Protein backbone atom coordinates (compact mmCIF):
# COMPACT_ATOMS: atom_id res chain seq x y z
CA UNK A 1 0.00 0.00 0.00
CA UNK A 2 2.80 2.44 0.92
CA UNK A 3 4.72 1.57 -2.25
CA UNK A 4 1.65 2.26 -4.35
CA UNK A 5 1.23 5.67 -2.69
CA UNK A 6 4.88 6.58 -3.35
CA UNK A 7 4.56 5.50 -6.96
CA UNK A 8 1.42 7.57 -7.37
CA UNK A 9 3.06 10.68 -5.84
CA UNK A 10 6.11 10.29 -8.08
CA UNK A 11 3.94 9.93 -11.18
CA UNK A 12 1.94 13.02 -10.29
CA UNK A 13 5.13 15.03 -9.66
CA UNK A 14 6.55 13.98 -13.04
CA UNK A 15 3.36 15.05 -14.75
CA UNK A 16 3.49 18.46 -13.04
CA UNK A 17 7.16 18.97 -13.98
CA UNK A 18 6.44 17.99 -17.57
CA UNK A 19 3.56 20.42 -17.77
CA UNK A 20 5.71 23.24 -16.36
CA UNK A 21 8.51 22.38 -18.79
CA UNK A 22 6.12 22.45 -21.73
CA UNK A 23 4.85 25.85 -20.59
CA UNK A 24 8.40 27.27 -20.80
CA UNK A 25 9.77 28.80 -23.99
CA UNK A 26 11.51 26.55 -26.48
CA UNK A 27 14.96 28.07 -25.85
CA UNK A 28 14.51 27.40 -22.11
CA UNK A 29 13.52 23.79 -22.73
CA UNK A 30 16.55 23.25 -24.94
CA UNK A 31 18.87 24.44 -22.13
CA UNK A 32 17.95 21.47 -20.00
CA UNK A 33 18.87 21.18 -16.31
CA UNK A 34 21.27 24.13 -16.39
CA UNK A 35 18.45 26.52 -17.21
CA UNK A 36 16.47 25.30 -14.24
CA UNK A 37 19.47 25.90 -11.95
CA UNK A 38 19.86 29.40 -13.34
CA UNK A 39 16.17 30.00 -12.81
CA UNK A 40 16.53 28.94 -9.16
CA UNK A 41 19.50 31.27 -8.58
CA UNK A 42 17.62 34.17 -10.17
CA UNK A 43 14.62 33.50 -7.91
CA UNK A 44 16.81 33.49 -4.78
CA UNK A 45 18.53 36.68 -5.92
CA UNK A 46 15.19 38.39 -6.39
CA UNK A 47 13.90 37.37 -2.96
CA UNK A 48 17.07 38.50 -1.16
CA UNK A 49 17.16 41.79 -3.05
CA UNK A 50 13.55 42.65 -2.22
CA UNK A 51 14.00 41.71 1.46
CA UNK A 52 17.19 43.79 1.84
CA UNK A 53 15.64 46.75 0.04
CA UNK A 54 12.73 46.68 2.49
CA UNK A 55 15.12 46.56 5.48
CA UNK A 56 17.27 49.46 4.30
CA UNK A 57 14.29 51.61 3.34
CA UNK A 58 12.74 50.96 6.74
CA UNK A 59 16.00 52.05 8.38
CA UNK A 60 16.38 55.28 6.38
CA UNK A 61 12.76 56.28 6.86
CA UNK A 62 13.42 56.46 10.62
CA UNK A 63 14.70 59.92 11.42
CA UNK A 64 17.17 59.32 14.23
CA UNK A 65 18.93 62.68 13.96
CA UNK A 66 16.83 64.47 16.57
CA UNK A 67 16.95 61.69 19.21
CA UNK A 68 20.74 61.54 18.79
CA UNK A 69 21.07 65.27 19.42
CA UNK A 70 18.82 65.05 22.48
CA UNK A 71 20.81 62.12 23.86
CA UNK A 72 24.13 63.96 23.51
CA UNK A 73 22.62 67.11 25.03
CA UNK A 74 21.44 65.21 28.11
CA UNK A 75 24.81 63.48 28.44
CA UNK A 76 26.52 66.88 28.45
CA UNK A 77 24.27 67.76 31.38
CA UNK A 78 25.11 64.42 33.11
CA UNK A 79 21.43 63.39 32.95
CA UNK A 80 21.84 59.72 32.08
CA UNK A 81 18.19 58.78 32.66
CA UNK A 82 16.87 61.33 30.20
CA UNK A 83 19.57 60.40 27.71
CA UNK A 84 18.51 56.76 27.93
CA UNK A 85 14.87 57.70 27.36
CA UNK A 86 15.89 59.71 24.29
CA UNK A 87 17.70 56.67 22.90
CA UNK A 88 14.63 54.50 23.40
CA UNK A 89 12.40 56.63 21.19
CA UNK A 90 13.39 54.78 18.01
CA UNK A 91 14.72 51.32 17.26
CA UNK A 92 17.84 52.11 15.21
CA UNK A 93 21.38 50.68 15.41
CA UNK A 94 22.97 53.93 16.58
CA UNK A 95 20.41 54.64 19.31
CA UNK A 96 20.47 51.05 20.55
CA UNK A 97 24.26 51.17 20.71
CA UNK A 98 24.11 54.36 22.78
CA UNK A 99 21.57 52.72 25.09
CA UNK A 100 24.00 49.86 25.73
CA UNK A 101 26.75 52.38 26.47
CA UNK A 102 24.63 54.44 28.88
CA UNK A 103 23.53 51.33 30.77
CA UNK A 104 27.19 50.36 31.22
CA UNK A 105 28.17 53.69 32.83
CA UNK A 106 30.11 54.53 35.00
CA UNK A 107 32.23 51.59 33.81
CA UNK A 108 33.85 51.54 30.40
CA UNK A 109 31.19 50.79 27.73
CA UNK A 110 33.66 49.97 24.94
CA UNK A 111 33.18 46.20 24.89
CA UNK A 112 29.37 46.25 25.02
CA UNK A 113 29.01 48.94 22.38
CA UNK A 114 31.51 47.31 20.01
CA UNK A 115 29.90 43.91 20.48
CA UNK A 116 26.44 45.29 19.67
CA UNK A 117 27.76 47.20 16.64
CA UNK A 118 29.39 44.06 15.25
CA UNK A 119 26.21 42.03 15.71
CA UNK A 120 24.08 44.72 14.06
CA UNK A 121 26.41 45.10 11.09
CA UNK A 122 26.40 41.32 10.68
CA UNK A 123 22.59 41.30 10.69
CA UNK A 124 22.39 44.14 8.17
CA UNK A 125 24.79 42.29 5.87
CA UNK A 126 22.58 39.21 5.81
CA UNK A 127 22.02 37.94 2.26
CA UNK A 128 25.15 39.49 0.79
CA UNK A 129 26.98 36.16 0.94
CA UNK A 130 24.28 34.58 -1.22
CA UNK A 131 24.46 37.42 -3.74
CA UNK A 132 28.24 37.11 -3.89
CA UNK A 133 27.90 33.38 -4.51
CA UNK A 134 25.36 33.91 -7.29
CA UNK A 135 27.66 36.46 -8.97
CA UNK A 136 30.35 33.79 -9.22
CA UNK A 137 28.17 30.74 -9.79
CA UNK A 138 25.73 31.97 -12.48
CA UNK A 139 28.31 32.63 -15.24
CA UNK A 140 29.97 29.30 -14.53
CA UNK A 141 26.64 27.50 -14.87
CA UNK A 142 25.98 29.34 -18.12
CA UNK A 143 29.36 28.36 -19.54
CA UNK A 144 28.76 24.78 -18.43
CA UNK A 145 25.43 24.74 -20.31
CA UNK A 146 27.10 26.12 -23.41
CA UNK A 147 29.83 23.50 -23.32
CA UNK A 148 27.29 20.72 -22.93
CA UNK A 149 25.26 22.12 -25.85
CA UNK A 150 28.30 22.32 -28.10
CA UNK A 151 29.23 18.75 -27.21
CA UNK A 152 25.71 17.63 -28.15
CA UNK A 153 25.87 19.51 -31.44
CA UNK A 154 29.20 18.01 -32.42
CA UNK A 155 27.91 14.56 -31.57
CA UNK A 156 25.08 15.12 -34.03
CA UNK A 157 27.58 16.41 -36.57
CA UNK A 158 29.67 13.32 -36.10
CA UNK A 159 26.71 11.00 -36.65
CA UNK A 160 24.96 12.78 -39.53
CA UNK A 161 28.01 14.27 -41.20
CA UNK A 162 28.12 17.70 -42.83
CA UNK A 163 25.16 17.13 -45.13
CA UNK A 164 22.95 19.44 -43.02
CA UNK A 165 25.15 22.05 -41.20
CA UNK A 166 22.08 24.14 -40.36
CA UNK A 167 21.16 21.85 -37.47
CA UNK A 168 24.69 22.04 -36.09
CA UNK A 169 24.71 25.83 -36.18
CA UNK A 170 21.28 25.94 -34.57
CA UNK A 171 22.47 23.66 -31.79
CA UNK A 172 25.50 25.86 -31.07
CA UNK A 173 23.28 28.95 -31.00
CA UNK A 174 20.94 27.28 -28.54
CA UNK A 175 23.92 26.30 -26.37
CA UNK A 176 25.06 29.91 -26.17
CA UNK A 177 21.71 30.87 -24.66
CA UNK A 178 22.72 29.36 -21.31
CA UNK A 179 25.83 31.57 -21.20
CA UNK A 180 23.69 34.64 -21.82
CA UNK A 181 21.28 33.51 -19.11
CA UNK A 182 24.13 33.02 -16.62
CA UNK A 183 25.55 36.48 -17.28
CA UNK A 184 22.10 38.02 -16.88
CA UNK A 185 21.60 36.39 -13.48
CA UNK A 186 25.10 37.51 -12.38
CA UNK A 187 24.29 41.09 -13.32
CA UNK A 188 20.99 40.83 -11.49
CA UNK A 189 22.90 39.93 -8.32
CA UNK A 190 25.87 42.26 -8.84
CA UNK A 191 23.97 45.55 -8.77
CA UNK A 192 22.15 45.06 -5.43
CA UNK A 193 25.27 43.48 -3.91
CA UNK A 194 27.34 46.61 -4.58
CA UNK A 195 24.48 48.84 -3.40
CA UNK A 196 24.02 46.97 -0.12
CA UNK A 197 27.78 46.88 0.48
CA UNK A 198 27.98 50.66 0.09
CA UNK A 199 25.07 51.12 2.50
CA UNK A 200 26.72 48.79 5.00
CA UNK A 201 30.00 50.74 4.86
CA UNK A 202 28.05 53.94 5.40
CA UNK A 203 26.31 52.45 8.43
CA UNK A 204 29.67 51.30 9.85
CA UNK A 205 31.13 54.79 9.55
CA UNK A 206 27.98 56.24 11.13
CA UNK A 207 28.23 53.92 14.13
CA UNK A 208 31.92 54.72 14.55
CA UNK A 209 31.18 58.44 14.50
CA UNK A 210 28.38 58.12 17.06
CA UNK A 211 30.58 55.98 19.31
CA UNK A 212 33.47 58.47 19.10
CA UNK A 213 31.16 61.35 20.03
CA UNK A 214 29.79 59.35 22.95
CA UNK A 215 33.29 58.53 24.27
CA UNK A 216 34.33 62.16 23.93
CA UNK A 217 31.36 63.41 25.96
CA UNK A 218 31.83 60.72 28.62
CA UNK A 219 35.51 61.58 29.11
CA UNK A 220 34.81 65.30 29.03
CA UNK A 221 32.07 65.07 31.65
CA UNK A 222 33.92 62.33 33.60
CA UNK A 223 31.10 59.84 33.28
CA UNK A 224 33.50 56.89 33.03
CA UNK A 225 35.52 55.69 36.02
CA UNK A 226 37.99 52.87 35.63
CA UNK A 227 37.51 50.73 38.74
CA UNK A 228 40.67 48.73 38.12
CA UNK A 229 42.89 51.81 37.92
CA UNK A 230 41.33 53.20 41.09
CA UNK A 231 42.06 49.96 42.94
CA UNK A 232 45.64 49.96 41.69
CA UNK A 233 46.12 53.56 42.77
CA UNK A 234 44.72 52.78 46.23
CA UNK A 235 47.01 49.77 46.60
CA UNK A 236 50.02 51.77 45.47
CA UNK A 237 49.21 54.57 47.92
CA UNK A 238 48.77 52.06 50.75
CA UNK A 239 52.07 50.40 49.87
CA UNK A 240 53.85 53.77 49.81
CA UNK A 241 52.41 54.75 53.20
CA UNK A 242 53.47 51.42 54.65
CA UNK A 243 57.01 51.85 53.36
CA UNK A 244 57.20 55.35 54.79
CA UNK A 245 55.91 54.06 58.13
CA UNK A 246 58.59 51.35 58.21
CA UNK A 247 61.34 53.87 57.44
CA UNK A 248 60.10 56.27 60.11
CA UNK A 249 59.77 53.46 62.65
CA UNK A 250 63.33 52.31 61.92
CA UNK A 251 64.63 55.85 62.33
CA UNK A 252 62.90 56.30 65.66
CA UNK A 253 63.96 52.91 67.00
CA UNK A 254 67.57 52.66 65.83
CA UNK A 255 68.94 56.08 64.98
CA UNK A 256 67.26 58.28 67.53
CA UNK A 257 68.58 58.91 71.06
CA UNK A 258 65.07 59.16 72.39
CA UNK A 259 64.35 56.58 75.10
CA UNK A 260 60.89 55.87 73.70
CA UNK A 261 59.64 53.80 70.79
CA UNK A 262 56.63 55.13 68.83
CA UNK A 263 54.29 52.91 66.83
CA UNK A 264 51.74 54.51 64.48
CA UNK A 265 48.58 52.62 63.57
CA UNK A 266 47.71 52.79 59.85
CA UNK A 267 44.51 54.65 59.09
CA UNK A 268 44.26 56.05 62.63
CA UNK A 269 45.72 58.83 64.78
CA UNK A 270 46.60 56.44 67.64
CA UNK A 271 50.24 56.42 68.78
CA UNK A 272 51.64 53.67 71.00
CA UNK A 273 54.63 54.72 73.14
CA UNK A 274 57.03 52.13 74.60
CA UNK A 275 60.49 52.24 76.17
CA UNK A 276 63.39 50.67 74.33
CA UNK A 277 64.75 47.43 75.76
CA UNK A 278 68.01 49.12 76.88
CA UNK A 279 66.12 51.92 78.58
CA UNK A 280 63.92 49.37 80.32
CA UNK A 281 67.02 47.71 81.84
CA UNK A 282 68.52 51.06 82.83
CA UNK A 283 65.25 52.20 84.33
CA UNK A 284 64.97 48.95 86.27
CA UNK A 285 68.55 49.26 87.60
CA UNK A 286 68.05 52.86 88.71
CA UNK A 287 64.82 51.96 90.45
CA UNK A 288 66.53 49.08 92.30
CA UNK A 289 69.45 51.27 93.41
CA UNK A 290 67.13 53.95 94.69
CA UNK A 291 65.10 51.37 96.52
CA UNK A 292 68.24 50.04 98.25
CA UNK A 293 69.30 53.56 99.18
CA UNK A 294 66.03 54.46 100.81
CA UNK A 295 65.36 51.11 102.42
CA UNK A 296 68.87 50.30 103.84
CA UNK A 297 69.48 51.17 107.56
CA UNK A 298 71.54 54.27 108.28
CA UNK A 299 74.93 53.49 109.86
CA UNK A 300 75.72 55.10 113.17
CA UNK A 301 79.32 55.64 112.17
CA UNK A 302 78.49 57.53 108.94
CA UNK A 303 76.07 60.31 108.41
CA UNK A 304 74.52 60.57 104.95
CA UNK A 305 72.24 63.52 105.43
CA UNK A 306 74.19 65.84 107.99
CA UNK A 307 77.69 67.46 108.50
CA UNK A 308 79.98 67.03 111.60
CA UNK A 309 79.95 70.59 113.07
CA UNK A 310 82.79 69.93 115.62
CA UNK A 311 85.22 68.93 112.85
CA UNK A 312 84.26 72.01 110.91
CA UNK A 313 84.96 74.35 113.85
CA UNK A 314 88.32 72.67 114.50
CA UNK A 315 89.30 73.14 110.87
CA UNK A 316 88.33 76.80 111.00
CA UNK A 317 90.42 77.43 114.18
CA UNK A 318 93.41 75.64 112.67
CA UNK A 319 93.19 77.78 109.59
CA UNK A 320 93.07 80.97 111.67
CA UNK A 321 96.17 79.98 113.65
CA UNK A 322 98.06 79.27 110.45
CA UNK A 323 97.13 82.68 109.08
CA UNK A 324 98.23 84.41 112.30
CA UNK A 325 101.61 82.67 112.32
CA UNK A 326 102.24 83.50 108.71
CA UNK A 327 101.40 87.15 109.35
CA UNK A 328 103.79 87.29 112.37
CA UNK A 329 106.62 85.86 110.35
CA UNK A 330 106.14 88.52 107.67
CA UNK A 331 106.13 91.41 110.16
CA UNK A 332 109.39 90.27 111.76
TrEMBL record:
It holds the Pfam family MotA_ExbB. Residues 110-208 form the MotA/TolQ/ExbB proton channel domain. Keywords: Cell membrane, Membrane, Protein transport, Transmembrane, Transmembrane helix, Transport. It is found in: Cell membrane; Membrane. The chain crosses the membrane at residues 33-57, 129-151, 171-193. The keyword Lipid metabolism does not apply. One of its GO terms (cellular component) is plasma membrane. It is a multi-pass membrane protein. GO terms for biological process: protein import. Belongs to the exbB/tolQ family. This is Outer membrane transport energization protein ExbB. It comes from Psychromonas ingrahamii (strain DSM 17664 / CCUG 51855 / 37). The lineage of its organism: Bacteria, Pseudomonadati, Pseudomonadota, Gammaproteobacteria, Alteromonadales.
